Structure formats: structure tokens, C-alpha cells
Amino acid sequence: MSPLEIIASSLGVIAVWLTVRQNPWCWPIGLAMVSLYAWFFLEAKLFSQVLLHAVFALLQLYGWWQWTRADGAHGRRNVSWASMQEMLIGLACAALGALLLGGLMARYTEALFPWPDAALTAFSLLAQLWMALKRVQCWLLWIAVDVLYIGFFAHQTYWLTAGLYGLFTLLAIMGLREWRLALAPAR
């Protein structure tokens, strides 16, 4: 357990908690967290995770912009359901992205676990995009991805990060509940 991992995971808990509460400060805190984790994963030679966290940094800025746009009743973006078409296209793109990234990482890098790393990366990006758009389904996808990440990081003995993803799973369950409740007045 390195100090870098401790700081990044602490910021991660704060960022996800703020996301559950629909507080736009989740995005700048999340930006700090993903930046630190990119550095951590670079040292661990988990190159798909480095790429994931670099793209997460861009998505943190996009999410912050999306969440502070005044298109909702309270001057913020409203929670909504993704359409079936949006879900199918998103899942298909994530699956294709996983295959492409996994193949590249397996062939051209020294990446450890290139295929599961790439799959978790691709589906995390989709979950993050849906979160920026405040789609309820982001939490369902985060729950699935986070559970898989627990095993992925535990296998590598990154116990703090595995524990963080356990906490992320619980927070994602809370997020699903909270965001579904936020939909109730809109019905």
C-alpha cells in the first residue's frame, strides 16, 4: 500500500459519495483522484488502466460541464433513463472497445492481464459517460464493473484498491437507489 494509493482511494470515496448526492464537486475531486490513479497504474504496468484514467480525466471535465448546465428544474441536469437504443449502442461500443484495446495491449505492450484489464476499462468508460449524462443505468453498470474490479485488484494484492471498489459497489447501490428516487417526482 503506497501513499499514492491511499490518497487516490480516499479522494475516490469522496468523489463517489458526492456523485451519489448529485453534488457537482464530485467532478474536480474525481479529476484529482483519476490523475493520481493514472500514475499509480503506470507504476503497476496496468496500461489499460492508465489509458482509462487519462480518459476519465477528460470525462471528469465533461461531467462537470454537463452537471453545471442549467437544463433542469433546479438549475442542474436531471436524472433520466437511457433509451434501449442508447444502451445497446453503448454496450456494443464498449464490447468492441474491449476487444480492440485487449488485442493492442496483448500484442504491443508488457501489460499484465491485458484482456480483463481492457474489458473493465471499456465498460468503465461507458459507465462514466452515462454518469456524466445522469443516466440511471450508470449505477447498474458500475455495480457489475466494481464487483469484477474487486477480484481483479485482489488477485494482484492491491488490497486497498480492491477494498475501495468494494466501497464503490456499496456507493453504486446507494446511487441507484437515490437516482431512482430522484426520478419519482418527474413521473
Characterize the structure shown.
By secondary structure, the chain is mainly alpha-helical. It has one domain (3-69, 84-186). Helices cover 79% and strands 0% of the residues. The chain is built from 7 helices and no strands. The mean pLDDT is 90.
Write the layout of secondary structure elements.
Blueprint: H1 3-20, H2 26-44, H3 47-68, H4 84-108, H5 114-132, H6 137-155, H7 159-183
Helix pairs in contact: 1-2, 1-7, 2-3, 3-5, 4-5, 5-6, 6-7
Q: Can I get a quick summary?
A:
With 187 residues, this protein is mainly α. It has helices at residues 3-20, 26-44, 47-68, 84-108, 114-132, 137-155, 159-183.
Give the overall shape. Answer: globular
Number of strand segments: 0
User: Averaged pLDDT, please?
Assistant: 90
What number of domains?
1
Approximate strand percentage: under 5%
Query: Main sheet?
Result: none
Run of helices and strands: HHHHHHH
Q: What distance separates the N and C termini?
A: 46 Å
How helical, in percent, are the residues? over 70%
Report the C-alpha radius of gyration, rounded.
Answer: 16 Å
Pick out the low-confidence regions.
none
Main location: membrane
Pfam families: NMN_transporter
InterPro entries: NMN_transpt_PnuC
Function: Required for nicotinamide riboside transport across the inner membrane.
